[in-house]
Design goal:
Blueprint: E1 6-9, H1 17-28, H2 30-46, E2 55-59, E3 62-69, E4 72-81, E5 84-93, H3 100-115, H4 117-120, E6 121-122
Parallel strand pairs: 1-5
Antiparallel strand pairs: 1-6, 2-3, 3-4, 4-5
Length: 125
């Protein structure tokens, strides 16, 4: 099975929300950062085959990567673009469910990405 390419969503102003969040997380909570990188690696390896407890479908084509560190739930929201994946949003919560506003934002970003992938695809360095 070929690896899934994990793409990063980029806003029109050039910011890459997930990358900025991961960079901040790397300095503030190394354990959570490492777990998130591990999840991204699993997503690259298994793509649409990745299941609970690491990944789950939320709604409207939005999925989540899930991990927990010290009773805080860390989430990376993503959607499929063909066989590849676009990382769209991030978050952390003490609740089990992802807030609806976060899912709505990810849905909007996925729509933008699909309409103009060249404009909304960040380069990974």
């Amino acid at each position: 099975m070929p690896l899934t390419e994990v793409l990063l969503y980029q806003e029109l102003d050039g910011t890459v929300p997930v990358l900025e969040w991961l960079t901040e997380l790397q300095t503030k909570n190394r354990a959570a950062f490492n777990k998130c990188l591990y999840l991204i690696d699993l997503l690259e390896q298994f793509g649409s085959e990745l299941r609970r407890p690491r990944a789950d479908m939320l709604r409207n084509g939005i999925y989540e990567l899930r991990t927990e560190v010290r009773n805080v739930n860390y989430r990376l929201l993503y959607g499929f673009v063909g066989k590849d994946v676009a990382l769209l949003s991030h978050g952390l919560t003490k609740e089990q469910a992802v807030p609806s506003r976060d899912i709505d934002l990810a849905i909007e970003r996925l729509e933008r990405f699909r309409k103009n992938p060249d404009r909304h695809r960040a380069t990974r360095e």
